[in-house]
Amino acid sequence: MSVKLEGMPENISTADSFTGKTVIDREGIEYGKVKHIHINSETLTVSGVTIHQGFNKDYFLSEDYIDKFSDETLLLSRPPVRTGIPVTDIDRHKVGKVKRLHRNPDTNELESIEISDGLMHSKILSKSEIWGIGEKVILRMTKEEFKKLE
Question: Is the pTM of the predicted complex or chain greater than 0.90?
Fold first, then answer.
């Protein structure tokens, strides 16, 4: 638990006061709890957070996902794509699950996702093929169009 020190400005908090806060987006979907705050060592600004979603399910969100911290929650400006969540087609038919995220190594920007559609099969789709993100990823195509992809 953090302590306010005498002379400490009102808008300053310690990083440990954010750990354990629930992470939600604008629709109220919960994504886990804040595990770590990441600080850029050169600029001393927040560069992102690690979110703990359960047993061995931690993931990193860069600062562009963060809208603001409230007393009890971290509010996201947009929902993140995470591994293990369901993927559906534009008509809400299940296609598979997000197996892996492919990010640009320089910017950490999401470039594509790998979707597992069976035990041994997976397909990589550009982020432009994603129509929506929330509790699941919704693609801009039908299940039949997805099956025809190489």
Answer: no
